[in-house]
From TrEMBL:
Keywords: Signal, Transport. InterPro entries: SBP. It comes from Paenibacillus anseongense. The keyword Mitochondrion does not apply. PANTHER family: MALTOSE-BINDING PERIPLASMIC PROTEIN, MALTOSE_MALTODEXTRIN-BINDING PERIPLASMIC PROTEIN. Pfam families: SBP_bac_8. Residues 1-30 form the signal peptide. Belongs to the bacterial solute-binding protein 1 family. Residues 37-55 have a biased composition (Basic and acidic residues). Gene3D superfamilies: Periplasmic binding protein-like II. The keyword Iron-sulfur does not apply. This is Extracellular solute-binding protein. Residues 31-55 are annotated as: Disordered.
Length: 448
């Protein structure tokens, strides 16, 4: 007869899978090292050495888009040239990508070896046992893997469960022709927004002073955390939820006050990345914060008449007793995860090592991506230095979300609270204390 401990473990795993699948549907609908050694033409990895052997190939499931499939495709072409291992790409549009990826991995598919994902799904999939850890492969291919050169790791239960390849980080964007002294604190940010809102200042060339991605879905909680952390709030610490703390409520009050003061567009609660980007591009707003690093390159390539006037810097923060400014921007990464049931794990791991090595990171940068290695970000050949230097400075104080198996449910709880704050239907204090209570229940439930 099955023991009680075994029963509990099975029930817990089943619960994780249920939450993962259910939450992914809600979530989507709401919104190496330096290998340093070129492959020798006579080695077993080269195309020449593979002549007469069975063709080797791997398949990667990825979301269509410049931050995912485009980079993977180009890296795959180079990998094939050097190794002869064919890289097949299976693409899907953004709308149901994560749901499909999750369903396939949980269902035990072996139709792809690797998949691309952001941090959102890594811990739930690892908890469900659906993805393969990389640690043994890294030891085999590069025992001296330089982790200090990588911006951050995806460790879950002491195992490396995802390998990052393209950074996303929150920056501060502002019109330098209007703002000569960028605000350093969030209070200064709110005051500056009033100066460049036409209803407050008829001489303002911009309709509104600021905006951010406040639409319920993938980005809203992440944007809030970059402000909340500055005020000393925490998602959770030492097993205790902290989104109802004084610091978190202060951030919520600032959000709601800027809505009520009408210094941000009225429909900001429905704004995602593209809305904020277009508002900067067309001169509708004077500032955007927190806003993703990817916008910088896109703006500079655009036909915006303001593209040379839009500058970047570290996001504002909160002044401390010693006079220093506490800034805590959020950062994350697109990653490669390996299917637990992959058919070609060894070759898949080789591609991951290839793409995340120093050479791979430099290729990523030249393709227009934001590499995950400090040594590449610091390379003087990468221009403009304004961008890369700002990213490096931001990384010194940046923070990523904790990898937890209940991430999707946590995100759902925060979306509910923050949407209430932005639409003015709930006071920040009540919304965030309710969210804290629900999050604590999640944390306690995960320990059983």
């Amino acid at each position: 007869m099955e023991g009680s401990n075994m029963k509990q473990k099975r029930l817990k795993r089943r619960s994780v899978l249920t939450v993962l699948l259910a939450s992914s549907l809600v979530y989507v609908s709401a919104c190496s090292s330096d290998s340093g050694k070129p492959i020798d033409k006579g080695s077993e990895e080269s195309p020449k050495a593979q002549e007469g052997q069975k063709a080797r190939e791997i398949t990667i499931f990825t979301r269509t888009g410049p931050d995912t499939s485009d980079y993977v495709k180009e890296q795959g072409k180079e990998f094939t040239k050097l190794t002869g291992i064919k890289v097949n790409i299976t693409e899907q549009g953004a709308s149901n990508y994560f749901t499909n990826m999750t369903n396939q991995l949980i269902g035990g598919t072996d139709t792809f070896d690797l998949a691309t994902t952001n941090n959102t799904y890594v811990a739930p999939l690892a908890e469900a046992g659906a993805i393969e850890p990389y640690d043994e492969y890294i030891k085999k291919f590069d025992p001296n893997y330089d982790w200090k050169d990588v911006a951050f790791q995806y460790k879950y239960k002491d195992k490396t469960v995802a390998m990052p390849y393209n950074l996303s980080i929150h920056l501060f964007y502002y019109r330098s022709d209007l703002i000569s002294n960028p605000p350093q604190t969030w209070e200064e940010f709110a005051a500056e927004a009033k100066k460049w809102t036409k209803s407050k200042n008829p001489a303002s060339p911009t309709a509104y002073g600021a905006s951010w991605t406040a639409m319920s879905g993938s980005e809203q909680p992440k944007v809030f955390y970059s402000m909340m952390w500055s005020f000393g709030g925490e998602i959770a610490k030492d097993g205790k939820a902290g989104v109802g703390s004084a610091g978190a409520i202060k951030a919520g009050d600032l959000w709601q006050s800027m809505v009520k003061d009408e210094v941000i567009p009225k429909d900001t609660p429905n704004w995602g990345y593209s809305n904020v980007f277009d508002a900067l591009k067309t001169g509708t707003i004077a500032m955007a914060a927190p806003f993703w690093s990817a916008a910088y390159t896109e703006l500079k390539k655009s036909d915006s008449p303001y593209k040379d006037k839009i500058k970047i810097g570290l996001i504002p923060g909160e002044k401390q007793a010693d006079g220093n400014i506490l800034r805590t921007p959020l950062f994350q990464s697109w990653t490669l995860i390996m299917n637990k049931n992959a058919k070609n794990k060894e070759d898949a791991a080789k591609f991951v090592e290839f793409m995340t090595s120093k050479e791979g990171a430099m290729r990523e940068a030249k393709l227009g991506g934001l590499p995950i290695r400090y040594s590449v970000l610091s390379d003087p050949s990468l221009q403009p230095r304004e961008f890369y230097d700002t990213v490096l400075e931001t990384l010194k104080v940046a923070k990523d979300e904790p990898l937890v198996p209940y991430y999707l449910k946590q995100h759902e709880i925060m979306n509910t609270a923050l949407s209430g704050i932005m639409t003015g239907t709930v006071k920040p204090d009540a919304a965030l204390k309710s969210a804290e209570k629900d999050l604590q229940a999640l944390i306690d439930g995960s320990k059983k």
